[in-house]
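Everyone, describe these structure tokens:
***
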Amino acid sequence: MSENEQYLSKSEQSMKKTQATILVIDDQEDILFASKMVLKKHFETIHTLNNPKNILDTLSGNQIDVVLLDMNYRIGFEDGREGIYLLKEIKTFSPQTSVILMTAFGKVETAVEGLKAGALDYILKPWDNEKLLSIVKTAVEESRKEKKKASKAPKKESFFIGNSSSIQKAYSLAEKVAKTDANVLILGENGTGKYVLANYIHQNSNRNAQPFVHVDLGSLNDNIFESELFGYAKGAFTDAKNDTPGRFELAQNGTIFLDEIGNVPLHLQAKLLQVIQNKSVTRLGEAKPRQLDVRIITATNIDLKQEVNHKNFREDLYYRINTMEILLPPLREQRQDIIPMAEFLLDRIIEKYDREEIVFDNNALSQMEKHSWNGNIREMENRIERAVILCENNTITVSDLDLDTISKAENNDDLHLSDIEKSTIEKVLQKNNFNISKSAEELGLSRASLYRRMEKYKIDN
């Protein structure tokens, strides 16, 4: 060993490493090797992955501070969409983990999109080692700040249930079924909170310490359906470089949430039924099934009974997934919950952007109550997030919410709708002999809300 080599060796030994765990994900072994050589001199633990399918598995088994994430994995696809998708999965699963995107020169615009989706920074390949170290050190500090903030922050309610009878019924059923392993089918329009309810069931179950794996079946095309859900063996197809577990295996001992199950084509429904029925999965390229212990929750905005009648959905699959059926009502049927829901979402978005207290002005509150909310809770969340970004003087206006674009026809229908509401309330009251409690429950209103409407329309016994 030369004097210089001896000196470097001692220098490296004396260098104090930062107590941090870094995960590098790239399908090129030379990138993984090079990054590990640079980072291991400065940080305590370095993990590498050449297959992005194993990200959630690695995150669940380790406290990862920083992820260095490549943006492209499949041959012939260089638009960075995989990277954006994986970034969102990481930030959902582990919000305090900092993510740095790795991208080739000329793909900077995709990396910038990644910053908007939650990445802390990006670095171009091939990188300068000093630049890499600087970015990773900053990312470690940011991750520590986020973890500290999360530990100190008062625990906020993760779920908003509401007071309308329909939503109370849905969550009451969810709580009862959560302690069992019964398969659950959640029905409801787009944006009504099917993912949130599925997560609520998981969090209130005996499996809550195990993985909760969400699969959007509507976004899986036929070509990748089986490999994504069931996994594959090395060599099973051209790009199968490693043995890879599917989403069912990643959910082992936990819960798998199969969203938009109504969109699965008939020929693939049979394969899904076999897995659910046999409680086992066989990877592509293998013959031996692997046993599963997984709670299955499904969801759709499609009328599956009608699809069964039309022979578009297998009847046997329908009954397999539908041990318990829970219907989530649209937001327009929960009028009394619109303002409380908006306040709940506003609090969460303020926390997300680390903003000072922001409030709705009275006109905004009034317009939100009148708005049809065709996009349900998802529409409300998007409008409020936009408003938080745009508002001035920490006050959200109708313009910030973009509610002043409600069609004139909708506004002109207000009088007609009022007549319908008055007539409906009168009929229900008469039917129940003016029993306020029964009438309020049937109308999906609180007693106080019903009294206010009776006063508004001058309805008395």
About this structure: The longest strand covers residues 18-25. The chain has 21 helices and 16 strands. The two ends are 101 Å apart (CA to CA).
